[in-house]
Each structure stands twice: as structure tokens, then as C-alpha cells.
Amino acid sequence: MCLFDRRAIISSIYGVGRFFAARRHRTPHCFLFAKREGCLLKICGLQKLTLLDYPEKVACTVFTAGCNLRCPFCHNASLVLGEPFPDEVAESELFAYLKKRRGVLDGICVTGGEPLLQPGLTDFLSSVQDLGYSVKLDTNGTFPDRLQAVVRAGLVDYVAMDVKNSPERYAETAGTAGFDFSSVRKSMDFLLSGFVDYEFRTTVVKGLHDASSLRGAAQSILGAKRYYLQKFVDSGELIQDGFSAFSDAEMREFRELVSPFVQSAALRGISE
Ligand code: SF4
Question: CB 3.0 to 4.6 Å from 171: which of 7, 179, 209, 241, for a disulfide?
Fold first, then answer.
């Protein structure tokens, strides 16, 4: 079944228009909440359908709880700031859903929070793969050894890694004093080696980024296959208030600025 056919089927099942409205704001009503029963992963949200999160795939997205960073612009504060986390999704319910949607969905995005914090991630990914799904892993890149382990085990098909900012402004942008950039550097180098398909992405925030810092960020991933600049959106659930987005025109200028350093630079969150 081609991607177009599946999108048509999914559209009739869920109503893609409604989905896009919910996806933009990521409010809790787009999640499926339930009591936790399993033990592989601490899951706090399931977005049943995404046409945006996994390139070229029709996918669902699983949100894991907890993060080791405190990026002040983070739009998933309730997943980051610790107990009490939002109500959890039962693994039995998730896997029942995945079994039911085989042939309609073809991928699963695992995001957070920071998924590599989860001790049960390897077993979880293995179970997902047994069902025939492709896996996209979102990570902040601060656990390079864990990242390499799941990739080298063949449990991940695509990695999306945050590039918070230039090395000089990383600690500030990650909201973590004394941040050790070497862990991120190691993850960047691993992805740049091409062992697995990947993208880098930066959420561009007024007050944290400017032309100089974005140039530094792009230089740190010199030659990268894909680099996305994402327009900041205030979800209403930020770790710290007071941030705003650059205009679409400014975002386009930033894309031109970073383009010479990577193979492909593109924007997300604006109409090109
Ligand atoms: S934006 Fe920062 S704080 Fe939020 S989940 Fe990602 S790495 Fe963690």
C-alpha cells in the first residue's frame, strides 16, 4: 500500500484536519492516558497518528517521562519536571494498538523527555520491532554510549538529535549550568559517521539564538545530511515563560545562513 493510500485511509479513520490542530499545540487531549501496567518504559502519552514526526512514514508517537536537561523553552514541561508525571499509558494498551494498526502505521517515534534515560528502552524497542515497525528515536544527545548501543543493536532506524545551540551557548540553552558538551559532541560524531539515518534539529528561540550562535551550531555538525531549523511555538506549557519566535522571514534568513555548512537545511513550522 503506498503512502498516499494509507494517508487516505488514516484520514478517514481519524480526521487528519483535527489531528493537525491538536498536533500544533500538543495539549493533553491529543494523548491517550491510562493507568500503567507494564514495566518496559515509563510512557506518559501516545499520539496515535503523526504524518509529520517521522519523515516519509505514517507513524504514532510515544512520549516518555523525564529528562536530564531543563531547556527553558521546552514545550513539554510536564514530561520533564518530574513527579507527578502525567498519567501513564499502559503498555498493554499501546501494544494492542500497535498490533491493530499493522499495515496502516509503519513507524513509531519515541520521544520525551529523553527516551535514553529509560532502563527498559532496549527491550521496548525490540518488542516494537518484532511487530514490524520502523523506529525513530528523538534524543538530546547527552547519552552517546546508550545511543550507540541501541543503534548498533539494530533497534533504531532513524535518529533525530537536538542541536541546542553553538557550543558556547549550549549550557544556557539546555538550562543546565556546567553542561558537558563532550557528550553531545560524541553523539554528533557518531551520527555524522552515517551508521544510521539521522537528522539534526534546532528549535530557534528569540533570546537564545542569533545569527552568530546558529552559525556556530551549524559548524558543529559540519557536513550533516539534514539540518532542520524549527520555529519556536509557545505551547503554554513551557519550563520558563517569556520566549518568543522569530518571524518567518528571519527564519528563512537563518536557513540561508546555515545552508553552506550542511548538505540540506530546511525549516519546520513555517510556510516556505
Ligand atoms: S527540550 Fe530540553 S528539557 Fe525538553 S525534553 Fe528536550 S532536552 Fe529535555
Answer: 179
Q: What are phi and psi of 109, to 5 degrees?
A: -100, 130
CATH number reported for the structural domain that contains residue 43 in this entry: 3.20.20.70
Whole-model pTM: value is: 0.86
Report the chain's mean pLDDT, rounded to a whole number: 86
**pLDDT at residue 28 greater than cutoff 50:** no
Q: How many residues does the chain have?
A: 272
What would the mean pLDDT of 156-170 be, rounded to a whole number?
98
Angle subtended by helix axes 3-14 and 16-25, to nearest 10: 80
For helices 181-192 and 144-152, what crossing angle results, to 10°?
20
Distance 204 CA to ligand 1 centre (A): 14
Pocket flag, ligand 1, residue 113 (CB < 6 Å): yes
3-class secondary structure, 107: strand
Quote the pLDDT of residue 170: 98
- Span from the CA of 111 to the centroid of ligand 1 (angstroms): 10
Domain, as residue range, for 238: 3-268
Please give the grid coordinates belonging to residue 189. 560524531
- Ligand 1 mean position, distance from CA 85 (Å): 15
How many structural domains are present in the chain?
A: 1
d(CA 106, CA 81): 31
Residue nearest to atom 5 of ligand 1 (CA): 113
The preferred substitution site among 69, 162, 230 for testing ligand 1, maximizing ligand atoms within 8 Å of CB, is 69
> Ligand 1 pocket, 218 CB below 6 A?
no
Does residue 92 carry a pLDDT above 70? yes
